[in-house]
Amino acid sequence: MMFVEYFAKLRESIKPGGRFSDVDDAVAKMRANALKIAGIFHLMGGKTGFIEGDTMKAALHVCTWYLLEFQRLFGRIGELSDEQTYARVLEEWLWARFKVKRAMFNVRVGEVRDMGPNCFRPPKRENLDLAIRALEKKGVVEVQDIRGEMQLKINREYFLTNPAPGNVLNLMKDFAYLDSPNGRYGLGSRSYQPPTIGRG
């Protein structure tokens, strides 16, 4: 519970204008790092079984210190670069798409341009390029050329183990076309009922 509560607050802090909005890449890696550090502390203490609250608290304390140091050295508190801004927009769109169709781990770049957020549609190609480059560095997607078509391969572990951003439910209505029998433009977004989060 301590771990979940800590990262729920941290997730809020990387929203635009948030305390750690300028170092969201570092924050994205903290969940796995915190668990690893807690596990190391647990083993070093000669303990077995579940990780205790005090051990997790110590691990989170270490992670917080390193995050603050990382921000001091590399961050721009209160600012978001264009790359970070567009990366966040694309990541939220991919999250909404993933929640509607969990089995779809490859997304055509052309689909993002045709059906994605307005900031990525022609003639704003450079915005999408910035976003993709940032999400590649973050480990969220990998660009692949599949039979001459550029696609984004979604990092399964990232989307299955991290919590979705807060406004994803609002975006899910835009993916009605994925639930139609032929995969395109089935229901209008006004009549679309989002599936229950967590359903396969």
Summarize the helices and strands and which ones pair or pack.
Layout: H1 2-13, H2 24-28, H3 30-44, H4 53-74, H5 82-100, E1 106-108, H6 109-115, H7 125-138, E2 141-146, E3 149-154, H8 156-161, H9 168-171
Antiparallel strand pairs: 1-3, 2-3
Mean pLDDT comes to 79
Q: What is the gyration radius calculated from CA atoms? A: 19 Å
CATH class of the largest domain: Mainly Alpha
Question: Quick one: how many beta strands?
Answer: 3
Structural class by SSE content: mainly alpha
Q: Helix coverage percent of residues?
A: 40-55%
CATH topology of the largest domain: Arc Repressor Mutant, subunit A
Structural account:
- This protein is 52% helix and 8% strand.
- It is mainly alpha-helical.
- It has a three-stranded antiparallel β-sheet with strand order 1-3-2.
- Helix 3 crosses helix 4 and helix 5 packs across helix 7.
- The longest helix is centred in the N-terminal third of the chain and has 22 residues, at 53-74.
Q: What would a concise description of this structure say?
A:
The protein has helices spanning 2-13, 24-28, 30-44, 53-74, 82-100, 109-115, 125-138, 156-161, 168-171; strands at 106-108, 141-146, 149-154. The protein is mostly helical.
